[in-house]
Amino acid sequence: MSGHRYLFSPLRIGPITVRNRIVFSAHLTNYAQDGLPSEQHAAYYAARAAGGAGLVITEEHSTHPTDWPYEKLIHGFRPSAIAGYRRITEAVHAHGVPIFAQLNHNGGQASSMYSRLPVWAPSAVPDPMFREVPKAIDTGEIAEVVAGYGTVAGHCAEGGFDGVELQCSHSSIVRGFLSPATNERTDAYGGSLANRARILLEIIDAVREALGPSRALGVRLCGDELIEGGTTIGEAVEVARMVADPGKVDYINTSIGVATSTLYMIEASMAIPPGYALFISNAIRRAVQLPVVGVGRIKDPLQAERALEEGHCDLVGVVRGQIADPDFVAKARSGHRGDIRTCLSCNQECVGRMGLNRWLGCIENPRTGRESVPLPIPRTRRRVLVVGGGPAGLQAASTAAERGHHVTLFEREQTTGGQVAVAATVPSRAEFLDVVRNLRAECERYGVDIKTGVAATAEMLCAERPDAVVLATGARPQPVHWAVDRVVDVRDVLEGRVAPEGDVLVVDELGFHQASSVAELLADRGCRVQISTPGMVVCQDLGVTLDVETFNVRAHAKGIEQRTDEVVMSASAEPDGVVLQILKHTTGTTAEARFDWVVCAAHQTPDDALWHELKQAPFPVHRIGDCLAPRRAHAAVVEGHRVAVGL
pTM, whole model, 2 decimals? Predict the structure, then answer.
């Protein structure tokens, strides 16, 4: 029924057979509790198995006490982890899906903050992110590391895993040994590629002995570190041949980048084209006779099918696509590809939350990470009116309708989307509109009556005599206190009310995509653009979503100048421009600057007039999203879901 020739064919991986070619590959979740697997893990992985994934590979399990780079790491070297392993594997096996565990020691890509022990690495080369000089381990400690992998593999076997994967890619002591950029040794573990790969081959031997012949063993390799003097595809192919030749490895997974300086290429945002890393799996697949997993922002079943059909890989890693929609595979297989809640590659709630030491979520799936928390059953079927067709209103409407309520949604504009539709008009952010498309499709699927071009009033809502009203009326621009003529809001530009020309200053008070998006748009239109921020970095929160690197490249190419540590104190209008008084934080001095236009990415004010009019209504009225407090899209989606569940 799906029309996919390759995607849903079975494949044998050593002693294990997978029923399709889609892998829920290893990725961090921050779900561990006191270093041990949790019920949150079990429910999370089980949901993707129930949704049809061919193979599940868990996040990394640390193999040694010296490896503790972040707080919520699974300490696989502790025997107490085995009970949690069993809960995870039993939950996944209940759906007939095999599950592997990823084993790792992060090496020098770590901190001693949690372990209070020196960081171990092949050489005393500090990582650019953690900036801590590691201890170059001696041969005795290398043997200890190797033995640790074997110990954890044994724990995984006892815990019911069908196999393990060795992380030798983006954040790993093994990658550190393999890379000439971080391995400066002159002994048997340094110098030639054969020497640098020695520890990997020893680990493979130790893990294979612990697993026995009935479980699968895979290796995840970095095909290109994208750093000066680092591993490139040629050496990665040679390492793949080394691990394949002895016959002890059953498959090879792939990766690109280093989880520090080139992290933005590992978990690429929507600025990077889909399938960008398939050249790595293609090269390795042509060199070995093992199944090879391809990766690279593959978010659609057609992209996955094409990667297989063109011979780039034998299996396809789809992570964020299944984070957003656990039923990704089942929907594709049943021919309902259009029902998939497509990943936005926005990185706000997956990568972004992880970077802030929070558990992994998803901007458009409020159940991600909450699978272990049961939803209450609705007591009665209610008649619900939702006002506003942005993410908050659409999510509230779809969830309420899915739970059996009769829902009508009113949107004053001719189309749904709210501010997301505006944000997505910028070419580099076009995929962000998928959240609206996805939510609108869910509303239609569950029978929401969507009425666009209707400005709801208090009188109209009261006349409908609903059981509940949900207000998601959004927010409106609020002029900055120093505004004069030709000082406008980002939305004024994006919504087409003004068209700045000449020299334009974009004032970034939000630290996110608003300023960068309008700056690029104006530069593309021929304006000479500068961005000014009171912060130390322009659009600083783009660092959390891994967008800052690609934005800086584009900004440089477009001549966008970045100014930091400064605040606009006042402005005066001229016939054809604006004169600003700007305070520089670092010096305490004030300077004057003239621009033709000033565009402000500033805080908004809730559009809550309808809320005040309905305070005495004879039915419950709920505010969600920006009309409650202007924030980002994830808050709108979470609140839409929360209020609908509580109806």
Answer: 0.96
